[in-house]
Design goal:
By secondary structure, the chain is mainly alpha-helical. About 75% of the residues lie in helices and about 5% in strands. Strand 1 and strand 2 form a beta hairpin.
Length: about 240
């Protein structure tokens, strides 16, 4: 383009091709530009073919807890507050799971997403407990104060208890689904009693969660009394 590649120049008695380098460069450039223009419209079809031949693997990313920061392990007083925030998140999720299981028992025509939410929440509770245990194990392995050690042990117990609540709720859901798959139904009286028992348990959990938020340890006698009432009601039903 503008150069004749065959033009010859004589330099010190020898034939030279002064424009050959420019023409080679232009040739490569034009070749690449044309290739891009030709293949641009074909990118999507080619990508679809490749995806069919070699399907992409789905990578399930493990969710991580919001408040836990390993940098806080060096400051145990702040670190124990972070794990406490995660305990409170587990408490809220447990309440949400109870709300979901009630809607499932209350309405036979409930959306299937309600069931999926319970199973998803149970998985999230398992992961939360696992991360809290790992975090607190690292935190308490160092030289920490007696108060931090005591709170840390309490939090380990609470994480275990909340995870157990999630397991129980999920077990109840699985039994309900087994009834449905077997074309069996709970009588209206039975459903009423189950919902009444559920409401007592849900109120009890909210009572406990509120005490956890306020760090109120004085509610233990009343909590024991309320727990005994629920146990008696369960046996009666």
């Amino acid at each position: 383009i503008g150069y004749d590649p065959y033009s010859v120049a004589i330099d010190t008695g020898e034939a030279m091709f002064p424009h050959i380098r420019q023409n080679i460069a232009l040739g490569h450039t034009c070749f690449n530009v044309v290739n891009v223009l030709v293949f641009l419209p074909l990118l999507r079809p080619l990508a679809a073919v490749v995806e069919k031949i070699v399907p992409a693997r789905k990578i399930v990313e493990t969710p991580h807890l919001r408040y836990l920061d390993i940098r806080m392990l060096k400051t145990p007083t702040l670190g124990i507050q972070q794990s406490g925030n995660e305990i409170l998140r587990m408490a809220v999720r447990a309440e949400s799971m109870l709300d979901s299981i009630r809607r499932i028992f209350e309405n036979e025509n409930h959306p299937r997403t309600e069931e999926e939410k319970v199973f998803d929440d149970e998985l999230a509770m398992d992961l939360a407990q696992k991360e809290i245990i790992e975090y607190l194990s690292q935190l308490l392995a160092d030289d920490v104060s007696h108060d931090v050690m005591t709170i840390g042990r309490q939090q380990l117990r609470m994480a275990d208890e909340y995870e157990s609540v999630a397991d129980y709720i999920t077990a109840i859901l699985k039994l309900k689904l087994k009834l449905r798959d077997s074309n069996l139904e709970i009588t209206p009286v039975g459903t009423k009693e189950i919902l009444d028992l559920h409401d007592h348990v849900a109120a009890y959990l909210r009572f406990i969660n509120d005490a956890v938020r306020r760090e109120d340890k004085e509610i233990v006698p009343l909590a024991t009394q309320k727990g005994n009432v629920i146990t008696h009601l369960m046996k009666e039903y």
